[in-house]
From TrEMBL:
One Pfam family cited in the UniProt record for this chain: Flavin_Reduct
Name of the protein this chain belongs to: Flavin reductase (DIM6/NTAB) family NADH-FMN oxidoreductase RutF
Originating species: Silicimonas algicola
Annotated Flavin reductase like domain residues: 18-173
Annotated SMART domains: Flavin_Reduct
Length: 202
């Protein structure tokens, strides 16, 4: 099968998200200028550079009570900071609860009864029990093609790792089973690993 996206695929559901999988989930916490807080998951998320460490996430829709975007991007525009919280399998249900199109005055930490704690380097809350959290300073917001598509880029200036996730000097993902996004309404969890050595490496 071959299709051109502008002409449609003819299938019951869009296969694009199912093709580009699995995707890590960035659970983005932000605080607005007015002190209101937001927590929302984004599956268009990834790390993009080592030195300095940098991450990205993309917001691809808008809410009526925000100017052409969603709460996360709006808050980041105001404050210039955000925190990426890593989602473990055990948090799948509360993460999903925060994904709704809630009004901007709704605090998802309270809505989903998620414990929060203050970040160290930025004025923002983070998920207290997350396996890891990345405190980020905004570097750029790129307007992408299409309606309400924004790419948010940030430099990681603070890193939190839960102590029980560090084994033998390594951040061990098998201690918490990262949640990943697949296509449609499907998710998965990382439960096993294997290693490969690149050509030329020792």
């Amino acid at each position: 099968m071959f299709y051109r996206p502008e002409e449609g695929h003819g299938l019951p559901h869009n296969p694009f998200n199912a093709i580009v999988t699995p995707r890590p989930i960035g659970w983005i916490s932000t605080r607005g200028d007015d002190g209101s807080e937001n927590l929302a998951p984004y599956s268009f998320f990834n790390a993009v550079a080592y030195v300095p460490p940098q991450v990205m996430f993309a917001s691809t829709s808008a809410k009526d009570d925000r100017d052409g975007t969603k709460d996360s991007v709006s808050n980041i525009r105001e404050t210039g900071v955000f925190c990426v919280n890593i989602v473990e399998y055990a948090m799948k249900d509360v993460m999903n609860r925060t994904s709704g199109p809630w009004p901007k005055e709704v605090d998802e930490f309270e809505l989903a009864e998620i414990a929060r704690t203050e970040c160290e380097t930025i004025a923002c809350s983070r998920v207290a029990a997350a396996p890891a959290s990345l405190e980020c300073r905004l570097t750029d917001i790129v307007t992408l093609r299409g309606e309400a598509n924004y790419l948010v880029l940030g430099e990681v200036i603070g890193v939190h790792m839960r102590d029980d996730c560090i084994r033998d000097g390594r951040f061990d993902v098998l201690t918490f089973h990262p949640l990943t996004r697949l296509g449609y309404r499907d998710y998965s969890q990382i439960t096993e690993l294997f290693s490969l050595t690149r050509p030329g490496e020792k």
